[in-house]
From TrEMBL, chain A:
The chain crosses the membrane at residues 32-52, 64-84, 89-107, 113-134, 141-161, 181-201, 221-239, 245-263, 292-312. GO terms for molecular function: transmembrane transporter activity. Pfam families: BPD_transp_2. This is Xylose transport system permease protein XylH. It comes from Alicyclobacillus macrosporangiidus. The lineage of its organism: Bacteria, Bacillati, Bacillota, Bacilli, Bacillales.
UniProtKB/TrEMBL annotation, chain B:
SUPFAM superfamilies: P-loop containing nucleoside triphosphate hydrolases. InterPro entries: AAA+_ATPase, ABC_carbohydrate_import_ATPase, ABC_transporter-like_ATP-bd, P-loop_NTPase. PROSITE patterns: ABC_TRANSPORTER_2. PANTHER family: CARBOHYDRATE TRANSPORT ATP-BINDING PROTEIN MG119-RELATED, SUGAR ABC TRANSPORTER ATP-BINDING PROTEIN. This is D-xylose transport system ATP-binding protein. Residues 15-257 form the ABC transporter domain. GO terms for molecular function: ATP binding; ATP hydrolysis activity. Pfam families: ABC_tran. It comes from Alicyclobacillus macrosporangiidus. Keywords: ATP-binding, Nucleotide-binding.
Length: 403, 263
């Protein structure tokens, strides 16, 4: 299978596909991907910036990154669930329970890493439980996770006891939120990301040519690498002109990139999409449907727990409000606004990151304008409706495309 | 016992089923069904609703197990107790609903559940080898004369005939000896039906055995070498296409003509 082992004896006709052609074909068939959400994000940023010149300041953007870390983590977990065509209404409550476990253990003198491990394990156990209930008992995920959500809120209240809010005193746990990367390290990481992308796309291209398949054109590959480099450089520059790249942002990015890779390039990811596209066909094709379901539910709750840990570090405490409020709706909205379909099989974790940026930007911008909650809610509702409408309309277009 | 018309008496049938019997509770779905398929032969399985076509197909593809009866693959008696077992014997079924994932592209559907991978984090993660899959799919598609849009096109944007083609190509890709097609032209227009019938003939040219279930007598007479008529759970007749009329087949199907063995 090693492509270098058998170089093509005859130079085959090399057909190259330019990036623009690829995009055009995707748009025609209704595969819009990240395009609508990125346009939406640009519009939102421009609007807020024109009203309040501080919006795009590096200080505010840095703050925005901290704000979306929890929503982003939960959005990634929710994306996996939505890809199966299921829903998880408990993910925010799970984050609350994880925060409670983390803080109570830490206060009891357990070391920070052990407390983190315990919080993550709590998420895993909850996820396994919910996954088992959905997969083997057959209760719809909507109900299992709705019931779960109520139950976990109860558990959190019981855990926190009379005192209500329990503050974190552990320095390390608090430092997750307040740490920033030194400038040199951000640049090294940015360079590593660009190098990784460049290595990956050019290797894929080489491999495809050596097998006589069409591949992306050299120009489009160059464009892709340049685009990555530009985005990475802008992010680092902007963040460095305040305090540097926030560690929370890096953690979120690492998870997004890792799970993006899992979904796009591994057999497990392929099976998640297959299951969301046609569960019966997947079963007949011999895909271990139940194992995949269990794994995804577990993964989602683990992501909820990790989001809860980040949230606790940011708040500096666990309280009865941990994982409450808008968090659930925000994280589902992040996934859906990003373009992940509620009907399963379509979307990606990158969409969740973009969606979290949209939600975070609206909240942040509204706060900056000191707009009342009433306006905030209405605007967020409107954005969600528009996002799902775009999904519905492109779906129609997709169905028309070939018939 | 039927005496069957055989195109090549010296060859071994790729599939032979004898005296299948199957009941679901009080319902006797199959009473006595026998048929055989030779390599490079298209056999049409026809019958009225409830004649037992679906049950027969389900037994051959391993979804149901018969109460009685014997199944031979290449002359050897086998037990087909699961779809996986059917696949092991080289039997591939293209269901009426095609069992495609609309959200995935053509290659992904061809390799659904059988992705080419290499271990990444054993035993959890395996890396997909996308270009290897595409490389392997191309010659199979070419050999079937299949013209499809770029293999990275999502199946959702294909026409009905193209979707059928993808489903059949998947069966062939897995090196089957026998392909079962359940109503392959039911939902298709004239041009697309033509494409699918051509594809069936190419499967035959490749030396595969093909069983086609169809309601459409016109299609049956276009592609089949022999026609097996089921009626009320029995094999009511087996005909060479050349020596039978459409009217007669319909008459046997509906019971208007006496059961005829051979032709």
């Amino acid at each position: 299978m090693n492509p270098t082992a058998n170089p093509p004896a005859v130079e085959k006709e090399r057909k190259s596909v330019s990036l623009l052609d690829a995009w055009r074909a995707r748009i025609r068939s209704g595969e819009l991907g990240l395009i609508p959400v990125l346009i939406g994000l640009a519009v939102i940023w421009l609007v807020f910036q024109s009203i309040n010149g501080h919006f795009l300041s590096s200080r505010n953007l840095s703050n925005l990154v901290l704000q979306i870390a929890t929503i982003g983590m939960l959005g990634v977990g929710e994306t996996f669930i939505l890809l199966l065509g299921e829903i998880d209404l408990s993910i925010a409550a799970v984050s609350g329970v994880a925060a409670g476990v983390l803080v109570q253990l830490s206060v009891a003198g357990v070391s920070a890493w052990l407390a983190i491990l315990a919080a993550v394990l709590t998420g895993a156990v909850i996820g396994l439980f919910q996954g088992w209930w959905v997969t083997y008992v057959g209760v719809p995920s909507f109900i299992v996770t709705l019931a779960g959500s109520l139950g976990y809120q109860g558990i959190l209240l019981a855990m926190l006891g009379q005192e209500g809010t329990v503050p974190i005193s552990d320095k390390f746990l608090l430092s997750i939120e307040s740490s920033y990367l030194p400038a040199w390290l951000s640049w090294v990481l940015a360079a590593a990301v660009v190098a990784g992308v460049a290595w990956n796309v050019s290797r894929t291209r080489q491999d495809r040519f050596s097998r006589g398949l069409d591949a992306a054109s050299g120009a489009s590959i160059g464009m892709r690498i340049a685009l990555t480099a530009i985005v990475a450089a802008i992010v680092v520059l902007v963040m460095d002109s305040y305090r540097g790249v926030p560690v929370m942002g890096l953690i979120l990015l690492v998870f997004v990139v890792f799970f993006g890779f899992v979904l796009q390039s591994t057999q497990f990811g392929r099976h998640v999409y297959a299951l969301g596209g046609n569960a019966e066909a997947s079963r007949r094709a011999g895909i271990p449907v139940r194992t995949i379901r269990m794994a995804v539910f577990t993964l989602a709750s683990v992501m909820g727990a990790i989001g809860g840990i980040l949230g606790a570090s940011r708040l500096g405490s666990a309280s009865p409000a941990s994982g409450g409020g808008n968090l659930l709706m925000d994280s589902i909205a992040a996934a859906v606004i990003g373009g992940t379909s509620l009907f399963g099989g379509r979307g990606s974790v990158y969409n969740a990151l973009a969606g979290a940026l949209v939600i975070g930007s609206v909240e942040n911008g509204m706060d900056l304008l000191s707009a009342p909650s009433s306006t905030k809610y209405m605007i967020e509702g409107g954005i969600l409706l528009i996002a799902v409408t775009i999904d519905t309309l492109t779906r129609r277009r997709r169905q028309r495309a070939g018939r | 016992m039927q005496s069957m018309a055989r195109p090549a008496p010296d060859a071994t049938p790729v599939l032979r089923v004898e005296h299948l019997r199957k009941s679901f509770g009080a319902v006797q779905a199959l009473t006595d069904v026998s048929l055989d398929v030779y390599p490079g032969e298209v056999v049409a399985l026809v019958g009225d609703n409830g004649a037992g076509k679906s049950t027969t197909i389900k037994i051959i593809s391993g979804v149901e197990t018969p109460d009685e009866g014997r199944i031979f693959v290449d002359g050897e008696e086998v037990r087909i107790d699961s779809p996986a077992a059917a696949e092991r014997y080289g039997i591939q079924t293209v269901y009426q609903d095609l069992a495609l994932c609309d959200n995935l592209d053509i290659v992904s559907n061809l390799f659904l559940g059988r992705e080419i991978t290499r271990p990444l984090v054993p035993p959890f993660l395996r890396l997909l080898n996308k270009s290897a899959m595409e490389e392997r799919a191309k010659p199979v598609l070419d050999s079937l004369g299949i013209r499809l849009p770029a293999l990275s096109t999502p199946v959702a944007s294909l026409s009905g005939g193209q979707r059928q083609t993808v489903a059949v190509a998947r069966a062939v890709l897995w090196g089957s000896k026998l392909v079962l097609l359940d109503e392959p032209t039911a939902a298709l227009g004239v041009a697309q039906t033509r494409q699918v019938l051509d594809l069936i003939l190419r499967l035959k040219d490749k030396g595969l055995g093909v069983i086609v279930i169809s309601h459409n007598m016109h299609d049956v007479f276009q592609v089949a070498d022999r026609i097996v008529v089921l009626r009320l759970g029995r094999t009511a007749g087996v005909f060479d296409k050349a020596s039978v009329t459409r009217e007669h087949v319909v008459a046997v199907m509906t019971g208007a003509a006496a059961e005829v063995n051979g032709a």
